[in-house]
Each structure stands twice: as structure tokens, then as C-alpha cells.
Design brief:
Four copies of one chain form a homotetramer. The radius of gyration of chain A is 30 Å and the shape is elongated. The two termini of chain A are 51 Å apart. In chain A, helix 7 packs antiparallel against helix 10, helix 7 packs parallel to helix 19 and helix 11 runs antiparallel to helix 12. Chain A has three domains: 92 residues, Fumarase C, Chain B, domain 1 (Orthogonal Bundle), CATH 1.10.275; 245 residues, Fumarase C, Chain A, domain 2; 65 residues, Ribonucleotide Reductase Protein R1, domain 1. By secondary structure, the first copy, chain A, is mainly α. Chain A contains 19 helices and six strands. In chain A, the strands form three sheets. In chain A, strands 1-2 form a two-stranded antiparallel ribbon.
């Protein structure tokens, strides 16, 4: 116990167990040791530690790190409140009373906050790499499918023809936004609170900038009271994970739908599918279902932490210990989901021809026809109405658009001429698109090239 | 793999790991075995298993249960999808091909749902017992404090004097509601889905009622499709845990406030307090802070599951596997929080005299004075206004109410007489209360007696 | 201002606007008036009001109610804190000082809580009626489709054939659970807090039971402190709305999917569809999309209120005013969604023949074949494996199951005989089901009859 | 109806009402008109509109804007789906068929998304201004209180003395982070989706960059499918509002606690307080209670939208209409809460002397004493233990630290000397702090100066 001498009774055993964070914050052991080494070096610089004392501390901490990594020493939840006190105790066992100098001018409040920020900075980098990998998987798939026609949907109703490459590029852009969001979180996280003490700094001449430098932080947090109370950067991280998972849930939903017998557009690899214990014929898209489902879990982590922090007075309250499990769980879930999704995308088989015939001459070309009328100076609202009649006529006569004759069209509206008939070919439809961001295969190919360069 | 023969490639290793629920659903091993034994007995009854086969299966399952409990066998997440397939595989190792007959007419969909319901029924009972214990702790504390005066607050401003016993009784009632809610959840959970198969029942003549009886379920679920898709009862359970934790968070907040130097009303036992690694004088109410904080976590579990289930088509989708971790975590958190709170309440020390002097003659008696005027036929709105003036006069003259003379009162409003002065004694204030549910110590003592009998 | 006399400065205008609840709690005017009438009658009974005073108050309140309902008088948010003080002020204008006697022994804390409970009791009844209507719509649709074959899905993959009637019955059962949940909430709500005052009851001899009786409450709340602090019953109501909307979101998702070109199983009525401002051919299932979307909103209401109440000390805090908007919005949303869904279900057109041919001889019959093997004493795990091989063979030879010859089957496993071939007819598949809760059309017809009687 | 011609039946009236967004999106009228003007100018540039047509459209739209602002024309929810179609219809009434040309190459999908982004950009600027005002209010209060001693708390237990100015600076920094977060959201929002059509761009040669320029967007969104499906920027905005409200809820909690009789540190102005309808003496901090409570509401908005978007396939689905109410409500709530809080802070009265005597010689100085020992080369862990004993000794002898004699101290640990006694003066305690971010009044004054310059 780090705080014992004024207490008469010991903490109740169940209460220790209830309150110990060791079972999960053991994950921060390496960051805690880095923070302690930086702190020791700083204490040496300002003359609180001699060179020898500092060397002993640093060597002791390095040994402890090795012991943990080789599983020679494993601290016990029934004995310690957290990984930080466990390591400090271990250091006493290794180097004796000098260990007692390490905590000078330091509280667990600033110590833990610094360690968590270090951990987050690493993990944000990992997530960015993982996002890059998924973007590459999508771009590789897109490259082969710039001319693979599929229906674009609104309201899950066929709207206009697009290509699979164009569809995948939508996700490449979403993912890029996820990186921007993580970049913002990184910049919020990249500030050192070390030296803020419990809430009010120190009477010792601690050199906060030196320590921050040792730990590769870009700058310092300001006000000490705020520094130890602040969990905003963690909630921003949980928001980034939540939106990230929300986006993956949308892609998952589409892959699930595309894999149905009814859609029959893609086939998942056996490697990312499972079967049924009862029904011998089943092949299920479990992996993407789990990704979709796990989005909810990450939203829950956000809600959990933000409602925990709501209404808390400054500075540290023990409630804030509840920040770590949602943080770790959200990272783990988002990270592995990104990885799984890259595997899924890389291994799906596309039924290239699935929609071509259905869409050739399909009603989903009718917007193009209405736009053709616009170029003949028909006001769009009128052309929309005219084409609505064309669709109704065709539907009633169970014809596709390309089965209509020019006389039939002229019967509905006299302005139609031969050139209108060209608009019923789905093959040409994509190439007729003129706007930036449209599924025109030439533009899509440029986009793929652009992203491939961008992501290098 | 239970579903292998039509697959060519094996499930990717990372994907197995990602999708395996073994690490957490191992907790359901006993329930899974009970379900299997009931199913086997039912298959024997309808002639699908011989007596010998059934005996072999039951004996094998009993052995497996013993192996798990004595840690002789422990299934591995890298090998199995879940505890159910692990146990089935183990049964093959023990009794050979007969094991293959156990899954007749059964899917993991109904098997797991049945096991979870069994587990929940046990845990709801545990929670009710835990709630009873906390109610007893509160009643025991209340018994000693029916005359311990304290301010009752609205808006955290002193409103009217009450007693600590009365305050604790508020929580006894809240907790009683928590039990009613759990009773509702119990009745929703106490229905057997076994025999519903994957979604559509069976062509085998399964006797669902027999199996339900064996497992002590009160009735059957109906429609098979709904039975395997339904997670409503789990969300109801998460709601019960959320409201339960919300209530505990309110008590925690109060205990934290009462423990401050400024309030100085209670002292937490050292057994449920911790100190600071930096500040030698600190004694912190960590346990109740954690309870307050963990309320957020349980809310998060609710959000996680309900948003996971939102928009899912029938019947089973793998997203639903995400039901178990929030279920287990909410139970664990609520259960241990109830236990901790009982320990906290049983060990606090009350500063009985803290508020007596401050409240004697305090402005918080002014409602009583206004009600006295009502009995003199002054309309309440007018008496409210008159007493408002009394308060303002006293405040401006920095007097307490019991320091005002009758002439001063009469100066404000002529109706005041000697008997009004009696209303400034806080001691009598509680005893003057006449309504059911009020802090009148005689009524409070009756209530304590009532609850003690009720909870036997 | 009801509380003015000790204040020097007036409430800031923006602050009044910020804190006034009149814009939304005006909705409680009728309940507030009922509560006041019951309170007046009770005050008469205990002698605080004369008969004449009581008559004047009751007549005045009746007039105010009429004024509001005929829009002759409409209170203003810039003038009043809430509907309760607006009505009280209006009563003064009508009957003079006698109005001032009404608030004897009453606080807005117990007054509002009583009014809200009355409102909720009415609305719960409305919701139950609305649920009944939707159940009837589903049963009417089901009646016509006990033999309309469709694929039952797990993981949105075809699993086993079921009927549309069976599918709709799943929702009838879900909806029945929603009513049970509302019944539980009703019983929690049906308790009168009137007479609890601000937090501590009264020195006046209020007859709480008399007032409760007047208002048709079944019983009283207990402890006064708890009574005015309690919002559990509202959160339980929000939970009921959330699960209810979650269930509707699942049905919505299915209707959306079934309406796609790819599924082509149902057609929504024009009355519940919309078009596109750009694409002339579009017909979109907007109504069910909105229902699906609004589920999220109702979840948000739950989260909003429970995290608002978290950590609040007893008794009333102004934060609790935030209970009403989520309550009203959740009721409105759930209520209208139920109504819209009944309209949608009543007006869809079913493509009866859509799946018949596809499912005849389809792999989704393979579980039945495996169960046939079980009756030939093949252990299910083995039969699952054998049928897995049959499926793989058929798939590789692009045959349906009913295109396989007996020799082909025997080649895979010798036990197959003529009778196995019967299992490939989808028509008979449903009738072969033997278990309670299965899609056997005879059982389904019984179920429909049962529900129709039940819901009378 | 903009989409009528292929429909036979009209939308059901209740369904129109259910689905109409006019009641809330009327708020976007000005943005919608700006978008239409920019679109018209662009259509003129590419030759789809003549100059005359464009002029007519622009003039018509300007008239409609004036009509709305002067309340001469108000569209009706029972007639229109949304404000966009209402304005288009009105334009027809004003300028005839030319109005029909405006929608060329445009869908409501891109039109609405553009309008919302314009609205958000304005509102983010307003929020930043409001945050600046609150920061100024805090800095003005801080300036007067750099030497107003108060306890700094951890776990709501007195930890170390700080100043009120230092405490307020913590919130200035939090608020600065809120602006950074809004800046990030602004950059995500500042991209024009106009020209993306329904999901796939256009066959017309729309000049997206020209239109974006007209509307003052910094850049274009990319992929059209993503552009109309994306709601990430709104969720990021809701996150910003949620964290912002969470921070205000913490300040609210503190102000509520500081206003209690027990703390007695501040007095709220009557302008931001209310009384009780029952208790004449009450003065309640309602405004900050409401701010604290409304944090929950804003969290609910976040949950509502993110769970609505979860699992939605691309591109537009009607569920997405549910984005606007949480967006508007979160802005309104956060904006007015910031404003109210600035009013509250500007008008509180501080009880400057409240804590001075209590803290002089108080145990909360013991960390400083322990740090003094560190400068005497006592390892901190040992000095922590020694000071723990000092505290225990003082407590047992009911002395404050400054009531201990040197011999008493030396009896506990021999190293203590005269200079240690200086550490018991609270007055000097703040000035002894040496670290960046500490409550040293000299540093705090520098910080206030820095922020005042920064916020100019």
C-alpha cells in the first residue's frame, strides 16, 4: 500500500479486488516504465537524484520490464491496486530504498494520465496503418471492377447504375475521414501532463518540458487541475472508434446483403465464413455480421465513459478509473475489425455479370433520359414528369426501356428522337457521367491512381 | 468444426479467434451440460436414444463437468468456436459416436438460448438476495437513527428537516422496486426455447414440454422463429441492472458528499477507503466513487446491445453473439456493487449531532410555520408570502427563526401568537408530521418494523 | 412567481425562458386540473376548505380546462415557469384569494409527479390498443398466407422453408411481450405520490388515500423523499418504448429487404411509399425506413434520461425537469410508428409464388433429410456430414436436391431409399414439422385462431 | 408532390404527416435558398439557364425569403414533405415554368446535405463566439481571485490548497479544447456536396467547383455515393456538443456544491436562482442544475443518430432524415447553456474568506511538508510515511499542523527543523509552487494575461 501510514484498518479484501485496476491496466506496463525513466532523468537533471541513484532506478525498471515480457514476474490483483504500484513495489525489492525517491513530485494522477497518452499515441498510429491496409484492399478490388456494372441504391431501391469500383471508392473516402479524425485525436493526446502532481503541481522545481521531451510529446498540458481531471481526449478517441465502426457496419451490411441468394453478387471466401451445426447446406457471413454487431459495443463504450464523467467535480475522482476498459476494448475491437474487413475484401469473389443484363434498358436509366430532355430545353420538372409517364407506360406493358420503340416514346412526348434511344444502354451510361465524383470509369480510374499515390 | 463437410477452405485462424466466443461463454458450461442432459432424456423418451445411449451421454457429460470444475480440462479459444462445440467434441472423445446422436433435432440457436435463460434465472435470484442484504444493512442503520436530525435537501439546498432513518428508508423502497423489476425479468426469462431448432422446429417428434420440465422452466416460448431471434429478455435484464446501478449511484453521491470536510456527517470505515500516493493526509471514498462510476458502464452495456439488435432481420444473426459480454458484465458489476454498498453502509460512522444545532430554529422550518398559518385559515399562498417576509427579515437581521420575538413576528403579520413559536424547535418538527410516508419518527419506526418482517 | 417574497432581483428573462417547461408541459394541463380537483376535495374532507371554497375552486378549474380546450386562453412561456403555476395564476384571476388555499400541503414536486403518472397511465392504455391493432393486422395477413412458402433465414442466408404466416406470427408474439412489459410499467406507475409534499410530507392531516382514490390510483407510494425523487417508472417506460421500437425496426428491415428488386417478395402500397425528386422511376419504402430510423431516437431518449438521473442526490433537483421531453417524444414516436406499421402491413401486396419454385428441391431442405437419416438410426453428427456431402455433390453438378437420383444418393451413403426422395418437396416440408411452435400450417392455423380469441 | 407521375394512389395523410420534415427543417430555409441561387448561377454558367431565366429564379427566391422572414408565407406540414419542396412549389407560383428548370442535375440528397453544411458552418462560428464569452467571464472572475484560497479536491476530499482563479483557469483550458474540437468539425463540414445528385453525379456538365465557390466552401466532397450517404460530420458535431456539455456539467456540479449551506463558498445571483412553491426560505441554483441535466439530453442525441446510421447501406435511406432534430437540439442546448453559464459566472458572489482560516495549518499542506523532506534527501516514499505519522499524531491530538511544536515534530522524525514550520502557512503555500501549470499566483496572473491576449 502506497498510502498507508495514517490508516488503522486495512482495505477490505473484497474492496481491494473491487477497486484494483491491475487486471486491465497491466497492459500499460511498458508506458509506465517509460514514464518513470523520463521522470527519473528529470529528477537527476534538477538534482533530486544523483547520477548513481538515477542509473539504479533506470536499470531496475529495465529489469522489471524484461521480467514482465518473459513472464518471469506477474503481479497479482489481490495484492496491488494497479500496475503502477506493483512496479514501484517491485523496484523496492530490486534496488531498495532508492526506489522511494522515484515518486518525488509525482502523483499517480499525472503518472497514469501520461502513460495512457503514450499508449494512445502508439495505438492511433496502429489504427492509421490498419486503415491504410483496408484502403489498399478496397483499391485493389476496385481496380478490377471499374466497368463492373451494379445498381446504385437509394432506399435499397435501384436508383442509377454505378460500378463496383465506384462503390468501393466511397468507402476509401470514408476511411480517409477516419484517419483525419484520428489525427485530430492524436494532436489532442500529444501533450504531457507529467509534473502536474495530484492537482496542483509541486514545490519542487520539476522541469516539465525536459520530461515531455524525453517522452516525445510535442507540448505540455497547461493548468494542473485540468490536466489530471481531463478525459476529453479519451472520449474523442471513443468517438473516432464509434464512427469508424459505424462505417464498417455499413460496409458489413452491404456485404451481407450482396451475399444472399437473392442478390447473389458476391461470394465470401470459406476462410471468412462459417456453417451451421444443424443445417448442412449453410454458409454464413459471420465475420462481417460480427463487425456489424460490434459497432454497438463500441457505441456503448462511448456512452459508458461520457456518462461516467458527467457531473464529476474536479479534480481526480475514482470514477475516472472506468476510462481504461472502454478505451482498451474500443481500440481492440476497431483494430481487429479493420483487419478482418481487409481480409474479407481481399478474398471475396465477384459475380461480374450479375447485374449487366438486368440493368441494360432498366428503369434506373430514366434519370439520364430526363437529363437528355433538359438538354433539349425541357424544364427538369417537366422532363421528370414525362419520363415518369414513360416508366408507367413501360411497366404497364411489361417492357424494359430499351424495348420501347421511338413511336411509343413520341406518343408520350413529341420531342424524343433517335438519340434518346442511346440512353438506354447501361454500358454507355457510366461513361456519359460528366461530374467530378461520378462513376464515370475514366474518372474512377484517375481516382484509384490518386489514392494509390496518396497512401504510399 | 461442427459444420465442415461442404467447406473447402478452413476458417482463417485470425477469423476463428475473432469469432470464437469461448473465452467468455465458457461461463455457461454448467448450464450447457444441464440442457444437454435434459435433451438426451427427452430423446430417450421419444425413442431416438436407447436407454444405454442416454446413460452414456449423461455419464460423459457429468465427467466433463467434473473435469472443468477441477481444472483437469480446459478448452482452447484457438480450437473451438464456443463452449458448446467444445463440450460436444469432448463428449466424442469420451463416448465415441453415440455423442453424435445428442444434437438430433437441436441447433446451437435454441441450445444457447436455453442455457443463457437458465443462467439468468440463477443470477436474478442471486441479485435479489444481494438486494435483500443491502436493504437489511440500511434498515439496521436506520433503526439507530430515527431521531438523528439532518437537513432534507431539494436542489442540494436545505429544505426541511428529516431524519437519517427516513433518508435510508427512501433507498429501501427504491431497492424494493429493483426486485419487482427483476421479478418481471424473471417471468420473461422463465420460458424454454429448447426444441425450436435453428428457426423452424423439427420433423422429429420432440417433446418440448418434457424437456422444459426437466429444466424447471414454467412454460414454453411459442413461435420458433421468434424464440431464436428474441433478445428482449436480456435487454430487460440490462435495463434492470442500469436502473439498479443508477439508484446506487445516487446513494454513492450522497455518501461522497456527506464524507466531505464541509458536510462532515459521516466517516467511512478505513476498510472501504483508500489513501493517496502523494498526499499523506488523504482518505478517499473510492469504493462508492467506483460504484457511481460503474453506473455509466452498465448504461453502456444497454446501449451496446439494443443498438446491436436494432434493424436485424429474423432469425439468428451472428451479431447476436454480442449479447453475452454485456450480460455477464452487467450482472457482475451490479452484483458486486450491491455487495460493496452493503459493506459500506454497515461500517460507516455517523456524526449524530452534526446538524442538530444548525437546524434548531433554522429557516428550513418555515414551511411548517406556513402550514401553521393555514390552520389559522390563512390561504397558503398568502402564508407562503408572509413567511417569506419573516425569512427575509430574519436574514437581514442575521437571526435564526427561534431568535425572533413574538412582537417581531406580529409586526410582520398580526395573526402570529405564542403557539407559532413552538414551530421553531427542530426536535418537535419531525413528530409534528402527520402524513403517511413522512419522517415522523413513530411512522418511521413502524416502517422499519414492516420492512424487517417483509424481508424475512 | 409562486416563490417570490424573499427575492430581491427578478429571474433574468433569458433564464426564465431557459428554465420554463411550459412549452412542453402544457400537455399535462388536464392531468394537472384533475390532480387539483382531487386535492381540493381532500382538503374539504379534512376541513381545510369549506364546501363553498371547494366548489369555487372546482368550478374555476373546470372553466380553465374549457378555456384551454377551446383555445380561449393560452399561457405564455415568457411569463410562467410551467403549466402548473400558469393554471394556479389563472385560478386567482377567476376566483380570487380562495385560489391561494389550493396549494395547502402540496408542493409542485408531488403535484407534477402525480400528474405525470396519470398521463402515463392513459398513454400506456393507448399503446396497448395500438399494439392490438398491429397484431390484428398481422393476423389478418397471416390468415391468407399459411401456405405461402418463403425461405426462413439465419444470417440472411436461406436456412429452412417457412411460411409467411409463420413469419408474421413471430411478430405477434414479440408484440405480446411488449404488452407484458407495458403492464409491468403500468403497475409501477399506478401509485399516488400526492401528499408527499416537497420531500417530507406535511404537518397538516392530509388524507393521501382519499386523494389517491379520487384519481383512481391502486395504491400509494411510500416514503415521501423517495416519492418525489423517483423517476424509475419513467425510465422503465422509456425501456418499453425502446424495445418496442427495436422490434419494429426489425420488421421494417425485413419489409425493406422484401421490397427490393432482388427479393421482389412484397409490394408496398403507394399510400405508404414515396418517389424521388430526381429519379422518375423510384418508389421508396420511406415509412418503414423512418420507423427503423426512429428506433435510434427512442434509444437516445433512454440514454438521455438515465444519464441525467445518474449521481443525483435526493430529493428533487431541477435536472429532473428533463424527464418530460423524452417521455413525450418516446410515446409519440412509438405510438405513431405502431399505427403506421399497421397501415403498412394492411396494405402490402404479397408475391405469393415468388419462392415456391426456387425452394422446391432446394438445399434448404437438407436439414429435413438429415433428420430422416436420424430416424434410420444414423447419429445426427454423421447424418449432418453425409448430407453435407450430398449438398457439395449437387452444387458441383449444379443440380437441385430434387434433381438427384436415388443411385446418386446411394453412392454417397447406402442407407438412402425411395422415401428419402419425398423430403425434397417443399410443399410437404412444412406439414412434416412436428414440434410446438413450428411452421406446420395446421399448427399455424391453430395459433392464429388462438391469438384472435386472445386479443378480442 | 415532386415525384408523382408514376404513382396511382396518393400518400396516406397520416403517412405524409409522419414523414414530413417541414416542421423542423423550415429552419433551413435561408440555406436552401442560398444553395438554389448558387445552383442557378452555375446552371447559367454552363448554359442550361439563360441569363433571364436565372435572374427570374434568383429574384423569385429572394422574394420567398422575404415572405418567410416577414411571416407573409408559411408552408404547411400537411401539404409538403419538407421545406425544399415547399420553396420549389412557391417558386412555381411566383415565376411559372421556369421554376422547373432549377432542379436540373440536382437531387434533394445533395441539395439538403449542402444546406445542412452551410447551416452548421454558421452555427459552429456562433458556438465559438459563445465559448469566448464564457472564457472571458471566467477570466474576469479569475482576475479578482488569484489569492482567494480554496481547497483543491481529489475524491471531493481536501487535497491541497489552490486559488479560485486557478480553478477557473482549468475551465478556460477545457473550453479552449472545445473550440479546437469545433475547428476540426468545421474543417470536416466545409466541403460542398452540391452536384453529386442522388448518388451518381450527372450527365450534365455541372461545374461543382463554381457552385462551391459561390457558397464559400473551401473544397468539394469527393465520391458522389459517399457524399450523399455521409453523416459523419454531424456525428462529429454531436460529439463536440456532448463533450462540451459534459464539461459544463462538471462546472455546474461544482457551483451547486459551492452554493450549499455546508460549503457556503459562493452565492448565486437572484437572477439565476428560483424559489419553491412550498418552502418560503428556498433559493435554488436551478439554472446550473438544468445545464447539468441537459448534458444527458445531448448525449442521447449522439446515441440516437449514431445508432440510426449503424448498418445502413449506401446511399441515402430515409432513416437519415432523423439527423436534423438531434442536430438542431444539440446546437440549441449547448449554445444556450454556454450563454446561461456566462451569465451565472458573471453574477456570482464569492465568500473570499470562507476557507482561509480552515486551511491555514490544515492537513492539506502535508504534501508540501513531504516535499520539504525530499529536499533534505529523504526518499519520497519515506517522507510520505513520516508525514502520514505527523497527520495521525495531530489528528489524535486534535491539533492542526500549525499547532504542532518543533519538539513534537522532531519526536516523530529528527530531521525536522524550524524551516519546516514555514510550510504550515497557507498564505505562502501557493507562492511556493514552482511548476508550470501550478496555482502559484504569479504564474496564474501570467496565464490570465496570456488568455486575455489570446482571446482578443
Amino acid at each position: 500500500m502506497l498510502w498507508g501510514s495514517r490508516f488503522i484498518k486495512k482495505l477490505n479484501n473484497d474492496a481491494l479486488n473491487f477497486s484494483s485496476s491491475l487486471s486491465f491496466d497491466v497492459r500499460l506496463y511498458a508506458q509506465d516504465i517509460s514514464v518513470s525513466i523520463a521522470h527519473a532523468n528529470m529528477l537527476k537533471k534538477i538534482g533530486i537524484l544523483t547520477k548513481q541513484e538515477c542509473d539504479d532506478i533506470v536499470a531496475g525498471l529495465a529489469e522489471i520490464k524484461a521480467e514482465i515480457e518473459t513472464e518471469q514476474w506477474y503481479p497479482d490483483s489481490n495484492e496491488f491496486e494497479d500496475i503502477h504500484s506493483a512496479i514501484e513495489k517491485r523496484l523496492f525489492e530490486k534496488i531498495g530504498d532508492t526506489a522511494g525517491k522515484l515518486h518525488s513530485g509525482r502523483s499517480r494522477n499525472d503518472q497514469v494520465a501520461t502513460g495512457v497518452r503514450l499508449w494512445m499515441k502508439e495505438k492511433i498510429k496502429e489504427l492509421r496503418d490498419q486503415i491504410n491496409s483496408l484502403q489498399h484492399a478496397l483499391l485493389n478490388a476496385a481496380e478490377k471492377h471499374t466497368d463492373t456494372i451494379m445498381p446504385g441504391y437509394t432506399h435499397l431501391q435501384r436508383a442509377q447504375p454505378i460500378s463496383l469500383a465506384f462503390h468501393f471508392l466511397a468507402y476509401v473516402e470514408m476511411l480517409e475521414r477516419s484517419k483525419s479524425r484520428l489525427n485530430f485525436v492524436f494532436s489532442e493526446t500529444d501533450k504531457s501532463p507529467l509534473g502536474c502532481g495530484a492537482l496542483a503541481g509541486s514545490t519542487l522545481p520539476l522541469d516539465r518540458e525536459f520530461a515531455a521531451n524525453e517522452l516525445n510529446f510535442s507540448s505540455l498540458t497547461g493548468n494542473a487541475l485540468d490536466s489530471v481531471s481531463d478525459r476529453d481526449y479519451i472520449i474523442d478517441f471513443l468517438n473516432a472508434c464509434s464512427i469508424g465502426m459505424m462505417n464498417l457496419s455499413r460496409l458489413s451490411e452491404e456485404l451481407i446483403i450482396w451475399s444472399t441468394s437473392e442478390w447473389n453478387f458476391i461470394t465470401m471466401s470459406d476462410e471468412f465464413s462459417t456453417g451451421s451445426s444443424l443445417m448442412p447446406q449453410k454458409k454464413n457471413p459471420d465475420i462481417v455480421e460480427l463487425i456489424r454487431g460490434k459497432a454497438g459495443r463500441v457505441f456503448g463504450n462511448y456512452v459508458g465513459l461520457i456518462s461516467t464523467v458527467k457531473g464529476l467535480p474536479l479534480s481526480y475522482n475514482r470514477d475516472l478509473q472506468e476510462d481504461k476498459e472502454p478505451l482498451f476494448d474500443s481500440f481492440d475491437t476497431y483494430n481487429v475489425s479493420l483487419k478482418m474487413m481487409a481480409g474479407v475484401i481481399s478474398s471475396i469473389t465477384i459475380n461480374n455479370e450479375r447485374f449487366y443484363n438486368e440493368l441494360d434498358g432498366d428503369f434506373s436509366l430514366s434519370t439520364d433520359l430526363a437529363e437528355w430532355l433538359v438538354t433539349k430545353d425541357v424544364p427538369f420538372r417537366k422532363s421528370h414528369e414525362i419520363v415518369g409517364k414513360v416508366v408507367k407506360y413501360a411497366e404497364e406493358n411489361t417492357k424494359k426501356l430499351n424495348e420501347l420503340s421511338l413511336p411509343e416514346l413520341k406518343n408520350i412526348y413529341d420531342v424524343f428522337d433517335e438519340s434518346a434511344l442511346n440512353f438506354f444502354s447501361v454500358k454507355d451510361a457510366l461513361y456519359r457521367k460528366q461530374t467530378i465524383g461520378s462513376p464515370n470509369p475514366d474518372l474512377v480510374r484517375d481516382q484509384i491512381k490518386f489514392w494509390k499515390t496518396q497512401l504510399l
